[in-house]
């Protein structure tokens, strides 16, 4: 998924609506992607700050999964698809 599609989806997000922001994007551990790749992916796709991306990556590695983003379903779906296209495992709850 292109960054432009993610940008447009994020711009449409209704921050004031609690129900719209009730979903979580969860990233799961795998045995083949490097820490650096996962960190870079979280920064680019989910717009995490470097320290947040690094912390999430360590949690995924040691705990098996991590909630990396909270938001509305449409926005998170675009991010999930972009992470999956990069070979990562993610889901929305």
Task: Characterise this structure.
- It is a single chain.
- With 93 residues, the protein is α+β, with helices and mostly antiparallel strands.
- It contains 4 helices and 3 strands, in the order αβααβαβ.
- A 3-stranded antiparallel beta sheet has the order 2-1-3.
- The chain is globular and about 35 Å long.
- Mean pLDDT is 86; it is low at 8-18.
CATH superfamily: Ribosomal protein L7/L12, C-terminal domain/Adaptor protein ClpS
Runs in which pLDDT lies below 50 for 5 or more consecutive residues are 8-18
The pLDDT mean sits at 86
**What profile does the largest beta sheet have?**
3 strands, antiparallel
User: Quaternary arrangement of the chains shown?
Assistant: single chain
Per CATH, what is the topology?
A: Ribosomal Protein L30, Chain: A
Structural shape: globular
Ends apart, CA distance between termini: 20 Å
> Which value, in Å, is the CA radius of gyration?
12 Å
Structural class: alpha+beta
State the helical fraction: 40-55%
CATH class: Alpha Beta
* Domain unit count: 1
In which order are the strands of the major sheet placed? 2-1-3
CATH architecture: 2-Layer Sandwich
Continuous helix count: 4
**SSE topology string:** HEHHEHE
Number of strands: 3
Beta-strand content bin: 15-25%
């Amino acid at each position: 998924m292109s960054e432009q599609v993610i940008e447009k989806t994020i711009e449409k997000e209704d921050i004031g609506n609690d129900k719209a922001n009730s979903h979580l994007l969860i990233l799961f551990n795998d045995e083949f992607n490097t820490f650096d790749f996962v960190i870079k992916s979280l920064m680019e796709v989910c717009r995490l700050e470097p320290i947040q991306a690094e912390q999430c990556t360590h949690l995924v590695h040691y705990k098996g999964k991590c909630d990396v983003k909270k938001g509305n379903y449409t926005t998170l779906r675009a991010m999930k698809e972009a992470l999956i296209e990069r070979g990562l495992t993610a889901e929305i709850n």
